[in-house]
Write a structure and sequence with these properties.
Order of helices and strands: HEHEHEHHEEEEEEHE
Number of strands: 10
Strand content: 5-15%
Oligomer: single chain
Helix content: 10-25%
Number of helices: 6
Largest sheet: 4 strands, mixed
C-alpha cells in the first residue's frame, strides 16, 4: 500500500500514545478549568498490551491489559500530583459494562484465565440482565474532599450529568437528563445513600428498588453460546433479594406475587412518564477548580455484603 502512512500505528503502543496525549492535555490546561474524558482500548480490542506488561498478571492477555490499564490511570494521577492539581480535581474511574472473556478473539483469554473470576460474586456478564452485566467498578478520588470509604450507595453513570453539573455549580434545565439524579453527596462520600431505584435494560427491562431486583419476562435466549454468558432471560418474571442473595441464585417471584406486581407497576409508571427523575430542580454548592473524568472498561467488581437471615 502506498500513501496513508501518517495514519499507521502500532497496536502495542496505543496505551502509551493516548496516555501521553492525556498528560499533555492536563499540562496545557493546568491553569484553567478542564474536563477530560479518558477512554482506553484496554480489555476491549485490540487486546495487545505493550511488551513490558505481557505476563505481568499471570492469567493471560486479558488480565495483562488490565495491568496496562492500571498503569495508564496511575500515570494520569501522577501527573495531577506533579502539577499540584490533585486536591483541585475530581477523578472518577468506572466501566461501561460487565466483563466478557470470550468475544470471538482467538487470543487464549479463556484458556489462561485460571481461577480468576472477572465478575466476582455477580452472576452473568456483559449483555446480561443479571448484576454481572451492569454492576461495575466506580471509584471517586479527590484528596481532601472525597471521604475514603466503601459505599453501598446506588448510583448510575446516567447520574454523572446532574452530579457533575452540581459539582460545577450549574443547574441543568428540567428537560435535561430526565433520568439523571444529583448524587453529589454520595459521590463525595458525605452520605451512603444514593438512588432508591434504577431501571436497567441490557436485554429485558429490569428494575432495582431497594433490596429487590425484578427482571421482566422475556422470550430471549437464556444463554449466549458465543460468549458463554448467562443472559438472564426467562419466560416468567424473576425477583431477587440482592441483600440476602447478591448472586441472584433464588428466584422469589412465586412466593410474593403481589410484590412482583408492585415492582412491575412502578417500572411501568416510569416507562409511561418517559423519565425517572421528578420535575424538581436540583443544584449543588460544591465547586471544583478542575474536573477529570476517567471512564474506562474494567473487569473488576467490588464486594457486596451477604445476608444470613431468611427472606421475609
Amino acid at each position: 500500500m502506498s500513501g496513508g502512512k501518517a495514519a499507521h500505528w502500532k497496536d502495542e503502543d496505543m496505551a502509551d500514545t493516548i496516555t501521553g496525549k492525556a498528560d499533555a492535555f492536563i499540562e496545557a490546561h493546568r491553569r484553567r478549568l478542564f474536563f477530560l474524558y479518558f477512554c482506553t482500548h484496554d480489555i476491549h480490542v485490540p487486546r495487545v498490551p505493550h511488551a513490558r506488561f505481557i505476563g505481568k498478571s499471570r492469567c493471560g492477555v486479558r488480565c495483562d491489559t488490565l495491568v496496562e490499564l492500571d498503569w495508564c490511570a496511575g500515570e494520569l494521577v501522577r501527573t495531577l500530583e506533579r502539577l499540584g492539581l490533585a486536591r483541585q480535581t475530581q477523578v472518577i474511574f468506572s466501566s461501561d459494562n460487565g466483563p466478557v472473556v470470550d468475544d470471538g478473539y482467538q487470543d487464549g483469554a479463556v484458556e489462561t484465565l485460571g481461577d480468576h473470576r472477572p465478575a466476582g460474586p455477580w452472576r452473568g456478564g456483559k449483555y446480561s440482565n443479571f448484576e454481572g452485566g451492569t454492576r461495575v467498578p466506580f471509584i471517586a478520588w479527590w484528596p481532601g474532599r472525597v471521604r475514603p470509604r466503601v459505599s453501598e450507595a446506588l448510583i448510575s453513570q446516567v447520574d454523572l450529568l446532574a452530579t457533575l453539573a452540581a459539582l460545577a455549580g450549574e443547574k441543568p434545565g428540567e428537560q435535561a437528563g430526565a433520568d439523571s439524579f444529583n448524587l453529589l453527596s454520595a459521590l463525595l462520600g458525605d452520605f451512603t445513600t444514593g438512588r432508591d431505584h434504577l431501571v436497567v435494560h441490557p436485554g429485558s427491562l429490569s428494575l432495582r428498588r431497594g433490596r429487590w431486583k425484578l427482571i421482566l419476562p422475556s422470550s430471549g435466549p437464556a444463554f449466549s453460546k458465543n460468549t458463554h454468558i448467562e443472559l438472564g432471560n426467562a419466560p416468567e418474571p424473576q425477583r431477587y433479594d440482592l441483600e440476602c442473595d447478591p448472586g441472584e441464585t433464588r428466584n422469589l417471584a412465586a412466593s410474593r406475587p403481589a410484590l412482583v406486581r408492585e415492582l412491575a407497576e412502578f417500572l411501568e409508571k416510569i416507562c409511561t412518564q418517559g423519565r425517572g427523575r421528578p420535575f424538581t430542580s436540583e443544584s449543588g454548592k460544591q465547586q471544583a477548580h478542575h474536573a477529570l473524568l476517567l471512564v474506562m472498561p474494567s473487569a473488576r467488581r467490588r464486594r457486596s455484603p451477604g445476608c444470613s437471615r431468611p427472606e421475609a
